[in-house]
Amino acid sequence: MGAMLYVDRTGIPWRYLPHDFALWETVYGYFAAWQKNGIFDQLICILRQLVRPAEGRNGEPSACVLDAQSVKTSANVPAAGQGIDAGRRGYCFAASTPGAGALWPLCDPDTPDLDEDDDGSEDP
C-alpha cells in the first residue's frame, strides 16, 4: 500500500518505483486486482463515513461541487479534424463535497470502462 501511495503522491510511472519498495510489477499487480475488485471504492466509502462524522457532518454528503474544463484545439489542426469525438460516449468526472477536500468519481452508467481493453502489457 505504501508503494501505491508513493506512486499516487509523486505521479511517477510504475516502472520508476524506487527499489525500497517491491518490484513495480508486483505492486501494479496488486493495484490492478484491488481496483478491479472494487477495494478502493470500498475504502473511499469507509473513509468518508469515518471522516465526515468526525467533522460533525452526516456520513453521507448532501451536496457536491462540480467543475469542468474546456481545452481549445490548436489552430494548426484542420477543421475536419476538430469537433466532437464521436467515439466518446457519456462522461466521467470527479466531484467534491464542500469542505471535505476529497474527490469522488462520478461516471455516466453508459460510459465504457476505460480499462476494459487494457491487457496490462504496457506500462500504465
From TrEMBL:
Residues 105-124 are annotated as: Disordered. It comes from the Bacteria. Pfam families: DUF4096. Residues 110-124 have a biased composition (Acidic residues). InterPro entries: IS402-like_dom (IPR025161). Transmembrane segments: none annotated. Residues 3-43 form the Insertion element IS402-like domain. This is Insertion element IS402-like domain-containing protein. It comes from Streptomyces avermitilis.
